[in-house]
């Protein structure tokens, strides 16, 4: 069943993700002319339940790991299969950031970012969109709900999924392969 759901998601949702990334890049950053392309995707499973599908976008001319290592533009999209209480999401994020020893100086902005969260419903789509020098946008269902020009915040928050000691080593490996 998991593979059927993933295939359906990929057939119907992933092309939408790619179109959004292309449109966002073209509309807001024409001087950069830097296209983001789908690099990898994976499903996070917790206690035998699929929680979300993740799709990672990076510049077309770079691999996912190379883009992460070189701090290039990235877009991480999470499509949720389950309802999740916002307090659980925030707790998991904070626990991961503490484990990764994120800078305490980021706490005020992290609190602002977390304040923009809402209870997740099955079918919701969260996206973290990072462009160096511009910072981070958090989108919920295609609406920007949080923006920060702080590249360090973007790096730390994307690190929840992409840095060592994150939420899932298996997910990280699949996204950065």
UniProtKB/TrEMBL annotation:
<keyword id="KW-0732">Signal</keyword>
<feature type="domain" description="Chalcone isomerase">
    <location>
        <begin position="28"/>
        <end position="176"/>
    </location>
</feature>
<feature type="signal peptide">
    <location>
        <begin position="1"/>
        <end position="18"/>
    </location>
</feature>
<dbReference type="InterPro" id="IPR016088">
    <property type="entry name" value="Chalcone_isomerase_3-sand"/>
</dbReference>
<dbReference type="Pfam" id="PF16036">
    <property type="entry name" value="Chalcone_3"/>
</dbReference>
<protein>
    <submittedName>
        <fullName>Chalcone isomerase-like</fullName>
    </submittedName>
</protein>
<dbReference type="InterPro" id="IPR016087">
    <property type="entry name" value="Chalcone_isomerase"/>
</dbReference>
